[in-house]
Structure of Tyrosine--tRNA ligase:
Amino acid sequence: MDFFADLQARGLVHQATDPKLGEWLAAKPRTVYAGFDPTADSLHVGSLLGLIVLRRYQKAGHRPIAVVGGATGMIGDPSGKSAERKLLDKETLERNVDGLARQMRRFLDFDPAVTHNGQGPALVANNHDWTGGWSYLEFLRDIGKNFPVNVMLGKDSVKSRLGGDAGMSYTEFSYMLLQAYDFVYLAEEYGCELQAGGSDQWGNITAGIDLARRMHSRQVYGMTWPLLTKSDGTKMGKTESGAIWLDADRTSPYEFFQYWVNTDDADVGGCLRMLTELSHEEIASLDAARSENASARESQKRLAEELTRLVHGDAGLATAQQATEIFFGAEIDGLDDRTLGQIFADVPAGEMPKSQLAGEGLAIVDALVAAGLAKSKGDARRTVEQGGAYVNNRRVDGLDRTLTAADLASESVIVLRSGRKKYALLRMV
RNA sequence: GGUGGGUUACCGAAGCGGUCAAACGGGUCUGACUGUAAAUCAGAUGGCUAUGCCUUCGCAGGUUCGAAUCCUGCACCCACCA
């Protein structure tokens, strides 16, 4: 199976501008680009698919360019959005662009020593570098002239907004010109002849292809991948508490791992195909195992493993797995503060003077309140009475339970838990 | 501006002088079950130095041995009439 057929088999090709794209790619190494929005200083699961697609291209011998939209981010892409986006200031954008570029190293190979079929390493480019210098008049004359308004009005991203109540500003309307020019610039400068993007980017991609033809009579290509959505129609990568980030400081490896472990049965097959680098045989055998015995949830575990390793490395995966073991019942003992701190990175903590552990010890009820697991002593008492309180993952059997130095799970920390999975640390200082 | 109705715990909603920390439903929490799922079932759901005490029923006063419940004033909301 050649590279493009593999992409198709994985469900990663939604639309392509040319039915022969596969042959074109197989003919020789190409340069391909995809854009990323610098709306935050970290990438999140929503942009994961794009990175993975570029990564696949690189592994297949092509050269990927990741374009971070330092310029377009100032405007705001209207595609797939129902309302005008608020604009980011330049400083924020620059910081975000740097943050994104750093994270991309996990996915793409930027090492100049490693060349892929003579194509060189991956590149990160900031479109502000080539767009920032335009004057308005120059832009209108050289670029704007090539865009018939009736064609622009026909784009879905524009039509849907004009049809709704939200309307659209001239600024957003102009967005597609900038992205179209990106493609033209990259084609001229880097020989980049293929743009890939999410299916909502189709309009912008074809705008770039048209512009390349008009300006330079040059044929370039585009393809889109499907948007990653869950079977219930909601967006992938979002939880009640917000987006799942690729930055370990924003979303811990454990939380990231857990997000994928909890993937619905209906979604996990597609995720394995699109997001992991497992072979079709492996995926097929996971599919078979799942329909045989869904409750083993092998697919979810494998998905979580693969993606956590990709995003957070082997060490991150190890932490996530250790944390998983602990969060799902293993008793906690004999750990050190540092390890415990990593495992419970997301967990809130309370403090108490160490002297409380001496003599009679610290009443369990007070400990629960101090750690923030109960909002009053009465609340804490109820939790204990109902059998919902745990010290280091061991159930507390009565209100007379007190905590002493023997309950320390590490040098200075006691792990408290209320219910199935609500944890808090109590630091004895 | 006039008349009538309302304002109750996280939300909705009963209560109309003592037995009201306040029915009921939702939510939330805990437990059982389970696939770290969904559904279901059970219990809990103001605070405390706790068989008792304290604070809550729009706000401020008053009547009464005793008020969420009665009276007065104020604020906000709804309906009808101007």
